[in-house]
Amino acid sequence: MNRRRLRAALLAAALTATLAGCGIRSTEVPTDFGPGPSRVPCVMSGSSIASQSTSGVPVQVFLVCAAQLVTVDRSVRIPAEKATSDRVRIAQALLDELAHTPSASEKQAGFATDVRGGTVVSGPDEGDPEDALRFSSSPEDLSAFALAQIVCTFADSAAAGDDREVIMGGPGDDPLRRYECTQAVRQRPGTVAPPTETVK
């Protein structure tokens, strides 16, 4: 081995030892991992969740994030004795919660809502099933995302029937429909509508 090759071999050995001492594995292929990862979407930090806790009954609502429905912890002001028995009151509280603008931490994590405020929920009209919910405007007029948010939030709460399905309709003679929240709806609320069945 001539002097030039010996010097190159010694330099390579020294470089390998230096990298090993720093805990970095040497590689023969140039590597570019790009910038560091950003905040994971649709995930809130523990401190953000804790800061949202207020007095009230804990509930979960479905917000839109990354074109999917994802649950977020909230709290609503309902007397404890009404939290599982007053279906109309629960539905109204959940609907109002869905209409609230997401908090700063929720927005930072990518959450949004398509539900607008102003809708009033009432109980069944004469001749309706006892677990029916009547809205001041027809649910069929809602956007695809808003309808999916409401159906899935209600279905996962005491506002739904024992079968976890939701019977909703608009005022007056607006037909009642039974809605179901499926995995496909949660994953693609903008393109997959909640399965419905007209209630006689």
Short description:
This protein has about 200 residues and is of the alpha+beta class. It has six helices and seven strands, in the order H-H-E-E-H-H-E-E-H-E-E-H-E. The chain has helices at about 5-20, 45-50, 85-100, 105-110, 145-155, 185, and strands at about 55-65, 70-75, 120, 130-135, 165-170, 175-180, 195-200.
Write the layout of secondary structure elements.
Elements: H1 3-21, H2 46-52, E1 57-65, E2 68-76, H3 87-99, H4 104-108, E3 121-122, E4 132-135, H5 144-155, E5 166-169, E6 177-179, H6 183-187, E7 196-198
Parallel strand pairs: 4-5
Antiparallel strand pairs: 1-2, 3-4, 5-6, 6-7
Explain the overall architecture.
This protein is of the alpha+beta class and 200 residues long. The chain has six helices and seven strands. The chain has helices spanning 3-21, 46-52, 87-99, 104-108, 144-155, 183-187; strands at residues 57-65, 68-76, 121-122, 132-135, 166-169, 177-179, 196-198. It has a five-stranded mixed sheet with strand order 3-4-5-6-7, with helices on one face. A hairpin with a 2-residue loop joins strand 1 and strand 2 (68-76). Helix 3 crosses helix 5 (144-155). The longest helix is centred in the N-terminal third of the chain and has 19 residues, at 3-21.
